[in-house]
């Protein structure tokens, strides 16, 4: 059909996607392949994201050098090592495990961060035992706000009405089948949506408890593993500072720091991908309703 003075048709390419072919304005009958604007926009967005990732890698490398050579030793000697010594002297392992479980279970309901508790779990119990303790606490931590918020559902809905974009993302989670709710909640957990706020706001979307719980536990795994990794790394740095002979060399410390930085960047990339998926779902919902 006509688009001003330019004729165009839609043809399928070899990949099965439709592309627009335009006639030349001079009427010579030649055609030009014109990429759909949404593809160009998407490519530009991912290019910008790639530049950001490269910048983060460079920044992480510089940070590793600064921490290993200058900031690390004073911080370890004056803050971290005394704190670890105090925790070790004050609590035995069963008591410490209970405290980690209790804080990760209760702090989300009180809108308090439980990251320090997960660090301590990584320092004291390692990956496997620390992960089990933390996930047991998080199971309670995401359950309490859900049931506490149920009686206040209408008030939360009125409050969310002031933030239409965030509300539209939450509406996605409450639509469709059990599996659809599971997928949507998991994507929201992985994406940079405020974690503590989401625990209460989700009740406004009429999400069922079982898909909410399972998706929440799956969605927080990357963050929990990364935080446990951070706790293990802090412990290694503290051991290296306390005993230079039995501790880690600077090269070993740098390798661990680079590994932690790479894990953090990978987590950020997965968070970004989840955010893009959520945005695509939100736009599809708007087109369907429109």
TrEMBL record:
A single Pfam family it belongs to is VTT_dom
Membrane spanning stretches: 53-72, 95-113, 125-148, 178-198, 210-231, 251-274
Record carries keyword tRNA-binding = no
Its lineage reads: Eukaryota, Viridiplantae, Streptophyta, Embryophyta, Tracheophyta
> Which protein is depicted?
VTT domain-containing protein
Arranged from A to Z, the UniProt key words for this protein are: Membrane, Transmembrane, Transmembrane helix
Q: Which organism is it from?
A: Eucalyptus grandis
Superkingdom per UniProt: Eukaryota
Location of the VTT domain:
112-232
């Amino acid at each position: 059909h006509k688009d001003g003075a330019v004729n165009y048709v839609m043809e399928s390419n070899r990949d099965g996607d439709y592309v627009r072919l335009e006639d030349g304005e001079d009427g010579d009958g030649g055609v030009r392949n014109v990429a759909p604007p949404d593809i160009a926009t998407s490519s530009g967005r991912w290019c910008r994201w790639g530049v950001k990732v490269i910048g983060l890698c460079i920044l992480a490398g510089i940070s590793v050098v600064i921490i290993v050579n200058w900031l690390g030793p004073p911080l370890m000697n004056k803050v971290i090592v005394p704190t670890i010594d105090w925790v070790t002297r004050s609590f035995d392992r069963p008591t410490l495990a209970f405290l980690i479980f209790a804080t990760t279970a209760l702090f989300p309901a009180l809108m308090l961060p439980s990251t320090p508790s997960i660090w301590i779990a990584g320092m004291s119990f390692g990956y496997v035992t620390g992960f089990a303790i933390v996930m047991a606490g998080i199971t309670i931590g995401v359950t309490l706000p859900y049931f506490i918020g149920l009686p206040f559902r209408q008030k939360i809905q009125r409050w969310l009405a002031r933030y239409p974009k965030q509300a539209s993302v939450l509406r996605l989670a409450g639509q469709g089948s059990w599996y659809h709710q599971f997928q949507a909640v998991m994507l929201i957990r992985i994406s940079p949506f405020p974690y503590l706020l989401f625990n209460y706001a989700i009740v406004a979307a009429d999400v069922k408890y079982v898909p909410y719980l399972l998706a929440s536990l799956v969605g927080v795994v990357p963050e929990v593993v990364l935080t446990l990794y951070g706790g293990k790394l802090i412990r290694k740095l503290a051991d290296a500072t306390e005993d230079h002979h039995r501790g880690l060399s600077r090269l070993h410390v740098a390798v661990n720091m680079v590994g932690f930085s790479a894990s953090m960047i990978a987590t950020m990339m997965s968070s970004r991908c989840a955010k893009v998926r959520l945005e695509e779902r939100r736009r599809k919902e708007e087109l369907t309703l429109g």
